[in-house]
Amino acid sequence: MPSSLKYFLTRLLGSLITMLVGTIVVFLVMKAAPGDPALIVLGDYATDETVAEFNSKHGLDEPLVSQYLDWLGGLVQFDFGQSLSVSAGENIGDLLLYRLPNTLFVGIYAIVIAVSLSLVLGTLAALNRGTSVDTGATSLAVLGVSMPDFWFGYMLILGLSIGLGWFPSYGFTQPSESLAGAFYSGFLPALAIAAPMAAVFTRTLRTALIENLDREHVMVAKAMGHSGRFRFLHHVFRNSLIPYITVVGLQIRYLLGGVVIIERIFGINGVGSLMVEAAFARDFFVVQACAVVFLGIVLAVNYLVDLICAMLDPRRVR
Amino acid sequence: MKLKHFLHNRTALAGLTITTLFLLAVFFGPMLSKWSSNQHDFMNALQAPSWAHPFGTDSLGRDVITRVMEGARISLLISVSGVLAAMILGITAGLYSGFYGGWMDVIVMRVVDLLFAFPAFVLALFLMVALGYGVTNVALAIMLVYLPIFARITRNMTETVRNDAYVQAAQVMGQGTPRILFREILPNISAPILVQATIAVAFGIVIESGLSFIGLGVQPPTPSLGVIMADGQEYFRRSPWVLTLSGLSVTVALLGLNLLGDGLRDLSDPRLKVRE
Questions:
Q1: Could you read off the pLDDT of A222-238 as tens digits, one per residue?
Q2: Among B126, B271, B145, CA closest to B204
């Protein structure tokens, strides 16, 4: 088997094992959580018979192992069971299918904004090292990481929505209804999520570019008479992409965390706001479904980042 | 790292100054204030900022700046205790797994990978549902978010130094493993851990305020930063200053901690210095 294929398959297997262990942990933690699902749905004054009936209907009277295996068997087919309280009786898989596109749209939108901002700021800072441009860009970056994203979201509402009236302060047009509407109504939430990420990306890119600018092969390229632009793109930028993309991948953890609060503030019907609603309603089944979905997204993105880095630097594969 | 170098690093110095001022305000400010954080004054509800109330008053007429100072103390204590717990467990796990390697390393790193695979805030939210809301559980959630980071850094650093001469010397001298790990190795790898700890405390405050902001963290009447901001969000349109100024205070505090962390990182990593 070629070493590259072996690498990709080993990494895939690793991700699948993490996912599997993750589902076990999520399942057990939710089982240990205080509160009985039956009492949450039926109320505290439910009789023993109705509780027993509810438990047998949802398979909650079976041994833990078979409950888990049932749940896992469903997961594989994107069947998460039924919602207990947040949207009682509805199929959780349908809830997720309706909301997942919104979360992904806002998340990807935020990444695009963060990457664009950081490419400009990071490059400017690195090329003008030690000047006021550098100081300005790095100060902006430190400020960006220091603002809680949800607070920045409200400041955007205050300035651009209440103040200037350019953007709606609440509500989100689904991409399936109108793509332009989704871009417009999703701008403020995406920007709020993007700000701290853009800051981290800018710092990473700046550091990586500065390290590479001083390296010998760039000097050699200069001695060989390559133009500054060619040297930057082919020798400096390309080599800086690996740490940059790695950090972009790592930030997915924080991005999805930001999505949870921001969706709630801006009234976006996404998986994040669903998880918060379910947390309030103590809908264990929906909470664990959302946790698994987020886990899956992070693992998928990490796998993708590994693939991209392996393509950029084939030495990693061996 | 010498004091002289520290004083010449503008980033670290600015960070230390802001952090010190913030700590002074948080621990001594409430004593100097005329108001107390839970003193209601309905005649003066939702007043705009003034000399008497620099951050204005909230819907119950409470002085917002006093509440922010008290809230910051609570948020800071939550964050610091969560981060300290994460450091104790993470560093211990990292030292042992980096030093011994083998199956223990595999298990520790698998657990770390798993914790890493959950979005930080989702992990925290998930734990709040499982454990219940409240101060202790928020600290516990912060601990679990940071545990894998400290474990991974410590493990990787330990692995790089475990065959160094001073470690071998300590082994030849017959020192016990715990002593070698904590007295010989740990002081030598402490710089990156310290940098991470500073930044972790800053982000721990964000986790606390985020959880409390959506109502799943610290519960009122305990005034944490998140609780105060959540309160301000309710009448944000009518009187935006409560949320604006309390959030601004958080930003300034985090700015101080982040600058301090950046400065310490620069000082411990000579590669990043600007060439003169």
A1: 777 777 777 777 777 77
A2: B145
Amino acid identity for residue A6 in this structure:
K
Q: Which of helix, strand or coil describes residue B118?
A: coil
Q: Which of A17, A128, A142, A160 would you mutate first to test chain B, the one with the most B CBs within 10 A?
A: A142
What residues 32-61 of chain B have any CB closer than 8 A to a CB of chain A? none
> How far apart (Å, rounded) are the C-alpha atoms in residues A154 and A159?
9
pLDDT of B208 > 50? The answer is yes
pLDDT given for residue B276 in this prediction: 33
Alpha helix locations (H) across chain A? 3-32, 37-42, 48-57, 64-76, 92-127, 132-146, 149-156, 179-185, 187-213, 216-223, 228-230, 238-250, 252-266, 271-281, 284-312
Q: Are A297 and A285 in contact (CB under 8 A)?
A: no
Q: What is the dihedral of CA A169, A170, A174, A178, to 10 degrees?
A: -40
Put simply, the chain B residues between 114 and 173 with a CB less than 8 A from any chain A CB are: 114, 116-122, 124-132
**DSSP 8-state symbol, B140:** H
Cα A109 from Cα A90, distance rounded (Å): 29
- The answer, yes or no, to whether the previous bond of A37 is cis (omega within 30 of 0) is no
User: Which member of B117, B130, B250 has the closest CB to residue A29?
Assistant: B130
What does the mean pLDDT of chain A come to?
A: 83
Does residue A108 have a pLDDT over 50? yes
Average pLDDT for chain B: 82
Q: Which amino acid is at A266?
A: F
Closest C-alpha among B226, B243, B268 to residue B55: B243
Q: A91 - beta bridge partners?
A: A82
Q: Which of A38-42, B24-28, B139-143 has the lowest mean pLDDT?
A: A38-42
Residues in chain B with CB shorter than 8 Å from the CB of A158 are 236, 240, 244
Residues of chain B in contact with residue A279, where contact means CB-CB under 8 angstroms, are 125, 128-129, 216
Q: What percentage of chain B's residues is helix, strand, coil (to nearest 5)?
A: 75, 0, 25
CB pairs A-B closer than 8 Å: 130
Ramachandran region of residue B273, left (φ > 0), alpha (ψ -120 to 50) or beta?
beta
In 3D, which of A290, A298, A255 has the Cα closest to residue A273?
A290
Question: Please, which residues have CB within 8 angstroms of residue B114's CB and are 6 or more apart in sequence?
Answer: A18, A21, A22, A25
Query: Which of A33-37, A88-92, A215-219, B77-81 holds the top average pLDDT?
Result: B77-81
ipTM of predicted assembly, 2 dp: 0.82
Rounded to a whole number, what is the distance in angstroms from the first to the last CA of chain B?
20
Rounded CA gap, A288 and B127, in Å? 11
| Nearest CB to A150 within list B119, B213, B274 | B213
Test A33 with B131 for CB contact under 8 angstroms: yes
Distance between CA A60 and CA A41 in Å, rounded?
Answer: 13
Nearest CA in chain A to B132: A34
**What local confidence, expressed as pLDDT, does residue A215 receive?**
75
**Biggest alpha carbon distance in chain B?**
75
How far is the C-alpha of B18 from the C-alpha of B3, rounded, in Å?
A: 18
**Optimal mutation site among A253, A285, A303, interface B, most CBs of chain B within 10 A:** A253
